[in-house]
Amino acid sequence: MKKKVLLMGKSGSGKTSMRSIIFANYIARDTRRLGATIDVEHSHVRFLGNLVLNLWDCGGQEAFMENYFASQRDNIFSNVEVLIYVFDVESHELEKDMHYYQSCLEAILQNSPQAKIFCLIHKMDLVQEEQRDLIFQTRRDDLKRLSKPLESTCFRTSIWDETLYKAWSSIVYSLIPNVRQLENSLAEFAEIIDADEVLLFERATFLVVSHAQRKAHKDPHRFEKVSNIIKQFKLSCSKLAAQFQSMEVRNSLFAAFIDIFTPNTYVMVITSDHILPSAAMLVNIKNARKHFEVIEKMNSSGTRMLR
Predict the structure, then answer these.
(1) CA-to-CA separations, 34 to 21, 64, 111, 126, 164, in angstroms, rounded
(2) Helix, strand, coil proportions of the chain in percent (round to 5)?
(3) For residue 226, what are the contacts with CB-CB under 8 A and spacing of at least 6?
(4) C-alpha span between 91 and 88 (Å, rounded)
(5) Residue environment code for 50-65, b if the CB has 16+ CB neighbours within 10 A, otherwise e
(6) Which residues, 6+ apart, have CB-to-CB distance to 298 below 8 Å?
(7) Mean per-residue pLDDT of the chain
(8) How high is the pLDDT of residue 299?
(9) Beta strands in 59-175 (DSSP E)
């Protein structure tokens, strides 16, 4: 099951850097050696079994952009599931950026009117912290107005913090078939084992694809932070020729367990029972594994499991 994803934006806006961090295991500082994208770079990213992201990273030089809207219009903008448009927050050509964005929307409306639209206001780390909220809100309001009649979802992002994982987790979440069924099963699992929270991560990217929460938590950004931390730890393990498989963290307030779940996911279980024996939790995870493997196969084939 292939899903076509367009990644567009002005040259130098950071498209290829974010793609390399999420899908090619780059760390932020290594993206400096990446060159500009020439025309369109195609990559197929296997995600959750048979779901394949057919990612089109479109070079943002002016000559290429004009070509996309003219001779390549039907090829580029047909059968698109998701358009991700990246804006450099410090661009000095905002009017031109908006013009190209509107041209993309016109082509999408003509060729793929059901496509989901995501706008990433990128390089937010370059903006003074006290100004970030105001600048993002202003840009978001402008983009939502320009996007009509299509709906757009906007995120602030930076390759230097967890905001990149928040945005891409949301994008990938929108592409997962039968995601509600997955969430319902995760909620049942959390209830059965009396967990505070259960997170499901895609195995290669460590993006959060689903979660169930039974206890309120004060940090709304915890998912992205965990994704970022564990992804960096996995990369450190691979440099030492070691394979990351599982992790356990405890303190006087909680216990957290991360383990391989299905062939394409990791699971993280958080419980307030900080003295719970590790063996007991690992047995619970093992017992749930087969059920979620079935769901994953159902999602991959696009069918529903009768309850």
Answers:
(1) 11, 19, 31, 19, 18
(2) 45, 25, 30
(3) 199, 208, 268
(4) 5
(5) bbbbbbbbbbbeeebb
(6) 178, 181, 304, 305
(7) 89
(8) 60
(9) 82-88, 116-122, 152-156
Taking 70 as the threshold, does the pLDDT of residue 306 lie above it?
Answer: no
- Please name the residue that has the structure tokens 């013009």: 99
- C-alpha–C-alpha distance, residues 263 and 48, integer Å: 8
Give the pair of three-digit tokens for residue 305. 């499991």
What pTM does this model have?
A: 0.86
Q: Among 284, 270, 293, 260, which residue's Cα sits nearest to residue 198? A: 270
| Dihedral over Cα of 275, 280, 281, 282: its sign | positive
Give the H or E element holding residue 42. strand 40-47
Strand order of the sheet with strand 208-213? 208-213, 197-202, 265-271, 255-262, 246-250
27-83 tens-digit pLDDT: 888 887 777 777 788 888 877 767 888 999 998 888 888 888 888 889 999 999 999
Q: Please tell me the total number of residues recorded for the chain in this structure.
A: 307
Give the residue from 232, 229, 188, 180 showing the smallest Cα distance to 209: 180
Q: Are 48 and 176 in contact (CB under 8 A)?
A: yes
